Amino acid sequence: MPERPPAPPPLRFLFFGAGAVGSLLGARLAQGGSEVTLVGRQPHVEAVTRDGVRMVTAGKVSNQSVREARPTIAEAMGPFDYVFLTVKGYDTLDAIEQLQPVLRPNTILGSFQNGVGNEETIAAALPEQALLAGSLTVPVSLDEPGTIQLHSRRGGVALAPVSPEVNVAPLVRKLHGAGFKARRYTDFRAMKWSKLLFNILGNAQSAILDLPPSHVLADSELFRYERAAFREAVAVMDRLHLKVVSLPGLPAPMLRRAMSLPSLLAQMLLEPRIGGARGSKMPSLWWDLSRGKTRTEAAFLNGAVVDAGRRVDVPTPVNSVLWAILEKSTKVPAEWERYRRQPDRLKALLRTAVRL
């Protein structure tokens, strides 16, 4: 009998800035037989090196080892078939510079980052680099070094090529084999903007007020501003000719229809689902403010809506106010103190900015 051809070598993945998102993707891919390297913060990579990635789902705990976990890219051993960025948007340019030594002609670089604009930044800095866009829609958090919490079994992974030569179908199949609901899209901008619609919900106002999203969504006036910010983003998408698309676990077209209803009716439909699902879990922008960071991802969320709105002549007054407060709060701590637990003060400011 003829000899069987040797099995192809396992795919090699590098996750740079591996926190909750990179660790979940990496651990699942490692379970599927891929060779995974995580580069992240020292306490996290030490815990992963010692015990693997500890995944907690509905009280059940599992551990998955990876090929290696390192605190710096210089210590990671390539080459890599895929290199994925999971850093905050404001760290993108610094990350690209650090990744230069491991990017080969046949390496595919991917952005698994929240917000919009990261892919354009990467493409401008590395015009010859094969690039794809990804979105993880599984709610996950890094509870402590080495331990990630999956808050729902819903969701999955969305993928789209940025460079025309990139075929994401093999990666979709690989992620399916790793246990993810994975789906490919043709327009990465439509995919990323559709994810942004969920990223901005219960985020900026919750962070500014230092109150959980459930509180914001249960307040009828604050909900009106959430709805207005959402509809501004949709109006920008329409002007950019970007389709609102459904992502795994995130039915964006359905959310758009609900937000087109009168505010009180939209709140009756959405508050129990969105507010109840998020509960007391604080949003990403709040974590940036609470840790005293000098930058937040707001520039890639509400700020991106404002910038795009200016380019295409779509008014975005609510997003403009929220972004301005967040930007000032990172530079002047007293600004955040003006609004923390002061919803009436934020409401008064928003009333002067927009008539609802």
Question: In a few lines, what is going on in this structure?
Answer:
With 356 residues, this protein is α/β, with parallel strands linked by helices. It is built from 16 helices and 12 strands.
List the SSEs and their pairings.
Layout: E1 12-16, H1 20-31, E2 35-39, H2 42-51, E3 53-57, E4 60-64, E5 68-70, E6 82-85, H3 92-99, E7 108-111, H4 118-125, E8 131-136, E9 140-144, E10 147-150, E11 157-161, H5 169-177, E12 182-184, H6 188-199, H7 204-209, H8 213-218, H9 220-239, H10 252-259, H11 263-278, H12 284-290, H13 302-312, H14 317-331, H15 333-339, H16 343-353
Parallel strand pairs: 1-2, 1-6, 2-5, 3-10, 6-7, 7-8, 11-12
Antiparallel strand pairs: 3-4, 8-11, 9-10
Question: Can you describe what's shown?
Answer:
The chain has 356 residues and is of the alpha/beta class. The chain has 16 helices and twelve strands. The chain has helices at residues 20-31, 42-51, 92-99, 118-125, 169-177, 188-199, 204-209, 213-218, 220-239, 252-259, 263-278, 284-290, 302-312, 317-331, 333-339, 343-353, and strands at 12-16, 35-39, 53-57, 60-64, 68-70, 82-85, 108-111, 131-136, 140-144, 147-150, 157-161, 182-184. Strands 5-2-1-6-7-8-11-12 form an eight-stranded mixed β-sheet, with helices on both faces. Strands 4-3-10-9 form a four-stranded mixed β-sheet. A hairpin with a 2-residue loop joins strand 3 and strand 4.
